[in-house]
Amino acid sequence: MSKAKGLDETKIDKIAKSHMPALGIDLGGTNIRAAAVRDNEIITETERIPTPDGRDNIIEGILELISKFQKDVLVGVGIATAGIVNGDTGEIIGSTGNLPGWSGTPLKQVLEAKLGIPVHVENDANAAGYAEARIEALKRKRCVVTVTLGTGIGGGIVMHGRLFRGANWAAGEVGHIKIALDNKRLCTCGLFDCWEAYGAGRGVIQTAQELLEGVTEAQSPLAKNVDEITTYEIFDAGDAGDIMAQKIVNRWHEHISHGLVNIAHILNPDCFVITGGLSENIDFRLLEDMVADRSLPRVGESIEIRQSALQGQAGIIGAAQFVSDEFLSTRK
Amino acid sequence: MSKAKGLDETKIDKIAKSHMPALGIDLGGTNIRAAAVRDNEIITETERIPTPDGRDNIIEGILELISKFQKDVLVGVGIATAGIVNGDTGEIIGSTGNLPGWSGTPLKQVLEAKLGIPVHVENDANAAGYAEARIEALKRKRCVVTVTLGTGIGGGIVMHGRLFRGANWAAGEVGHIKIALDNKRLCTCGLFDCWEAYGAGRGVIQTAQELLEGVTEAQSPLAKNVDEITTYEIFDAGDAGDIMAQKIVNRWHEHISHGLVNIAHILNPDCFVITGGLSENIDFRLLEDMVADRSLPRVGESIEIRQSALQGQAGIIGAAQFVSDEFLSTRK
Fold first, then answer.
1. Does domain A2-130+313-329 correspond to CATH entry 3.30.420.40?
2. Global confidence as pTM
3. End-to-end alpha carbon distance in chain A
4. What is the ipTM of this complex?
5. If you count residue pairs, one on A and one on B, with CB atoms under 8 Å apart, how many are there?
6. What is the mean pLDDT of residues A79-89?
7. Alpha-carbon distance A194 to nearest alpha carbon in chain B (angstroms)
8. Which residues in chain B have Cβ-Cβ distances shorter than 8 Å to A93?
9. Which H helix or E strand runs over A250?
């Protein structure tokens, strides 16, 4: 009897916490953005500041952003950052060109000491993948791989709703799978023929420069300024009907399909989500056909390829949502 | 008091069962082998019969083999087979060239009806990977990928001790990741530039034929009969000091490393186990150097590449062990 009468404080605490938002922060090379998140959705305005130089200034910037959400009662803070992150300790363990000096930062420890609430730090592609795989339409998928196409290529692998991080926190570094033999293209990482040397922004430009060799301006206006050609010019020319540009864009789709095919034959996912700045230029029907064409039937037939539903918000949402989920799962 | 006095039948049952062997059966294109397995080790003689033609004859053959173990009290039967297998229903859902007509066989259902004990059917590369990852030396690894090099290339992915099968039971079809651009080599599966078109037996031969073009018999004895060259001749010539053969073998190592690098950047495993007929010809130090050379530091530094500890026994052991583990996990 006494049990039934007493309040189950733990349960009430859990219910209350499940309705509290978490703060999501996306730390990029250009700016830092923050917003409160509940149920995989942003529920406040997004605040942003330009990314400062140096470790201490970045941490100051993050704290400044967090202070703007003082009025919100937060369950915790999730941070999506470039670089490889130890998901247990929240330390940045792999450097990234965009954030010099960031490697080695014990970010979770520093912030938790100042804030007194749980902080989770996650690689940005992982955070984005976590959010994308949690949208309603994908909740029944078994394995969702989110591929971010931008200045590089990143990946986030979610199996049965859980992030897969690998033995050394570096799973999903899909930009550096090798898609060609014989050292054809040097990647910014120093390795040859990485997927991102073909599929990311720089890759599209290099493909254009190769295919435009010997092409005259009369044949394609793109030939005018090959050395300083941009991805915008290429995609715009393709949309405007330039056949050379369309050939470049088609070749780019082949390169993208090549990497997806490799992931597919290893993981056999039932969904790829494509996101990042370049994803808007993808012809999804063409890409799906190419992947099916280059896959074993059993592997190819089960894959849906989707455009991101969350786009630039995915990092903020995923990092915050991860904190909410972690918090609740440890307080059953 | 009464509780402490009574026997915990479930617990006793579990202890008894954990000491009972399971029967492991490896169904290959050439023969079917069977042995009893306990604690990831074969504890009886291995019985074998040549693989008969046709679905019904194969099933008869399997039953004949099982009858030879009637004296053993078995916890169940595990079968490792080529082809893609639905691990829940035990149905062969993907065909394989070596066992025509095998696809569509509801093997688990047929055998359980006849035997009255649990049967588990598993893809052979998965079964082998499961056994390899369970050896004492690898028990603390987080992600072990076993790669079988033979007439084809197969893969078995074990994460934190559990097999990963993908969304459609086809995870680990690593032989069909694409390692080259531009449709250079046709694979037996009908796709171009699959890893196994370079790394499996046929691939080594094609590499030899390409590299030996224009080479005279005076330069290399291998040039004598290029059209009918075998992998044995190539590896033997390499061991005997033939420089052309060594070049072919080195190139083969590059091809192998290429596929491993792709798996590594997706899964970030801490161990690769290399098995199968061709694995004896691997120079493991060279291969480890090549993989490290072609990987991001964080990915490459954590990978151990090992020769199989179980070799041809791994399929039998893995299939049987899986039954034991499943059986015990469902009877807690």
1. yes
2. 0.93
3. 23
4. 0.93
5. 159
6. 93
7. 9
8. 298
9. helix A243-267
